[in-house]
Design a protein that fits this description.
Blueprint: H1 4-19, E1 27-33, E2 39-45, E3 48-50, E4 53-59, H2 63-70, E5 73-80, E6 85-95, H3 98-107, H4 110-118, H5 128-141, E7 153-167, E8 175-182, E9 185-191
């Protein structure tokens, strides 16, 4: 369970990034592995943070979904250049509940809901036109009705066992603070830059 101190510190960094004009402040670079040494990273959007961890959503049949099934651990980095701040974290990954996935999917705009059905994420696509045709077919199929959540679309929660905050300072004398679990709480340690 994340401590309130970690959540508050993260939310302060996120809000500072928003105020500094970061164009996509919830973007995080997510790194996964297939369990055999192949590593991949990509940018995803953080959708929530709470005491359980950091949550994002995706196509579970994508490369990242396959990686997380094979090796349910990940690392993520938030870099906010405008506010000279970075947060890194790593830990176990667990799927969200069906109810959580349903609730978040229902909150998405209709175009994104249709896109979740239309995209065979990470697989080869013959042409842009084929993707647009799939979206048009789905628009007709779900005309005048809610779009249900695809069975292959859900969320994951990273439950970190390390969270590091980095604050840029002059002459590269940065401030770094690493949080790691200790007993029933978290230990914070200042690190050399």
């Amino acid at each position: 369970m994340l401590s309130p101190e970690i959540i508050n510190r993260f939310n302060e960094c996120l809000e500072t990034a928003r105020q500094a004009g970061e164009p996509e402040p919830t973007a995080m670079v997510l790194a996964t592995t297939d369990g055999h040494g192949a590593v991949a990273s990509r940018t995803v959007l953080l959708k929530s943070i709470d005491s359980g961890g950091f949550t994002f959503y995706t196509n579970t049949q994508s490369r990242k979904g396959q990686h997380l099934q094979a090796c349910p651990r990940a690392a993520a980095t938030f870099l906010w250049k405008a506010s000279f701040c970075q947060v890194q974290l790593a830990g176990a990954v667990t799927p969200v509940t069906a109810a959580e996935a349903d609730a978040y999917f229902a909150s998405r705009d209709r175009g994104s809901q249709l896109g979740a059905w239309a995209s065979e994420q990470s697989r080869p696509l013959a042409s842009r036109e084929l993707l647009e045709q799939r979206v048009a077919e789905l628009e007709r199929q779900y005309q005048n009705q809610p779009v249900p959540r695809p069975p292959h679309w859900s969320g994951y929660r990273i439950e970190p066992d390390v969270v590091e905050f980095w604050y840029g300072r002059e002459f590269r004398l940065h401030d770094r603070f690493s949080y790691t679990p200790k007993g029933d709480g978290w230990q914070v340690q200042r690190l050399y830059p």
